């Protein structure tokens, strides 16, 4: 573990800040990954989510807590997942609108530069998988030296197959200032199958990992040079940011003026300061179910399984069930994914096309395209159990010490039955304690609130009745989480 110790020495003498970008929806991993709870929050490869694994890399390298750039809807999920791995002081920065990676990285660089323009950002996506942490840290050591020399370093991953889903980097001349680092000759977009087959025969080419290491001042200088509109709009948005609960919320009006563009197009492909570190750690963007099959341990028949799954005569399949039992018989090279509200079956060769089906479902306005049956909220979660024409039954879980907003509905009444824990219910002018096996009725129009005052989770069954049961029939009067 010599490399880990050397990283800690570097970290002690140079400020290196992990920056995690968590804005993707991961639609090619539908139906597990959806906009309401995308792939970075799922434990797809271990007992930790991809976000947690990403954050832990900074800890392994001896670095401090990260900056996480995300959207408003996921802020409490991210805070909770970081808390679970012992990171309590991350800076969670909220984008008011999705504007791709260049504005997000610009915001992070501006925030870092407020304190130390020479500090180094290690920019990572929240949803990649990396093995061989020691080799990663060795490459990071080299990337930090490259950043100190004034370059924007990226990691070039040695290809293991002719992958058409990744971008490629062509290595140029050696960097005089840093051993083991090279100038970037060019970046290439995702190639065709024949182009990819040729590229992996040339050792000058590597996969583009999408990670960047650079000083804040270097990033900002290049962004200001090539994309002044991004720099100006994001700079104003950072200046006008506000603190919201434990989060930093970028100003909406100025941020929305920023062009929607990736850091690759905005800077990496145009700058003279791009450098690549040839790297041998295993990396994947976990961009499809086929990629996940490759990363998952397999049985002697080449099958990778997760959950309540039974196979008979299946070969080289990926089968996952997050809900009911899934059985697969006598097939090869299939992907079968079962959730509580959807089933997806695809040939492994067509794994990239799942995204097309998601687009079709969105066009048909199917809620399954974007929302899970279980919806997470700052106070816990709820999930629909039964839905009829004028009624719906939900399970509601409230974490200890949390409470829902003070609210009312115009179109539905509610009946709550507590099945575990104790609730304090506000109903108009009353405040009522409801214990396990007790219930309470909330008539249409009643101002109400649910709170868990105890030390164990509160679980209740909610029966809604009325002509309209949509989630937008909520008028929030007061909310400790600053939701509208």
Index terms:
484 residues; six-stranded antiparallel beta sheet; 12 helices; Spore Coat Polysaccharide Biosynthesis Protein SpsA, Chain A; globular; five-stranded mixed barrel; alpha+beta; disordered N terminus; 3 domains; Jelly Rolls
Tell me what you see in this structure.
Pfam families: ManC_GMP_beta-helix, MannoseP_isomer, NTP_transferase. This is mannose-1-phosphate guanylyltransferase. Its EC number is 2.7.7.13. By secondary structure, the protein is an alpha+beta fold. It has 3 domains: 2-284, Spore Coat Polysaccharide Biosynthesis Protein SpsA, Chain A (Alpha-Beta Complex), CATH 3.90.550.10; 289-363, no CATH class; 374-478, Jelly Rolls (Sandwich). It has 12 helices and 28 strands. The protein has helices at residues 2-13, 50-60, 75-84, 101-115, 133-148, 193-199, 216-226, 228-239, 252-255, 263-268, 289-295, 354-363, and strands at residues 16-22, 67-71, 91-95, 120-125, 129-130, 152-157, 168-174, 182-188, 205-215, 242-244, 247-249, 274-279, 283-284, 304-312, 318-329, 334-338, 343-347, 374-377, 380-387, 391-398, 406-408, 413-420, 423-427, 430-434, 439-442, 448-451, 458-465, 475-478. Strands 18-19-20-27-22-25 form a 6-stranded antiparallel β-sheet, with no helix packed on it. A 5-stranded mixed β-barrel has the order 6-9-7-8-12. Helix 3 (75-84) links the parallel strand 2 and strand 3. Helix 1 packs parallel to helix 5, helix 4 packs across helix 7 (216-226) and helix 4 (101-115) crosses helix 8. The longest helix has 16 residues, at 133-148. It is globular, with a radius of gyration of 25 Å.
